[in-house]
Amino acid sequence: MGYRFYQNNYLRESFLFYPLIALIATSLASCSYSAKATRRYLQAAREQSPFDAIVVPGVPFENGNWDYIMKGRVYWSKYLYEQGFTRNIIYSGSAVYSPYYEGKIMALYAEALGIPEEHIFSEIKAEHSTENAYYGFKMARQLGFEKVALASDPFQSKLLRRYIKRKVDKEMAVIPMVVDTMKAIQPQMLDPQIPYEEAFKPDFISIKQRDSWWKRMRGTIRGNLDTTAYSTNY
User: Within 13 Å and on the Cβ side, how many CA atoms surround 91?
Assistant: First the structure.
């Protein structure tokens, strides 16, 4: 709850330019990349680009519309695609807290915003951010993509960077969102309608009902990984 609350509010303030953004950014600096750091990572990504694919972690889809976090992540991925940082995008996320596959929902939004369908992929197994990184990378490899990066907001990017280097792949880059860039494109942002029923999971059971608090916490920290998923060994 705490992480999601702070993350949501940080992005909300960033997009709407409330005066409190400076205070929020300062107080949360320890768990998020600074503006200077995000620009540095973006420059490093530019020097390594183009990536074959970026992995974008999912966000629950509730009340028939995307929230600030999902909107921010999708628009960040759109920016990276249009600026030539990546050739493809993998949106990762199962139906975790709501009966909609997060990866499919985000893919529908991306397509509605003009990203070509043939460059959009959905990974629908991940239930935690660690799993987004792990399964997203494994799916990329299965698809034949070699050069892969994770692209997300500054909070999640910082939280996942060490995990990625230790548990996923040392060469997997991280491209945290640059808030100044998001401010610049905010006036052109749209809220397109999508056929979200296409992402509905009929047999959905919330993770809160399926897993204990401890299992969910363990998954958040290190992932409840299926190491055989997206295997390239046939």
Answer: 31
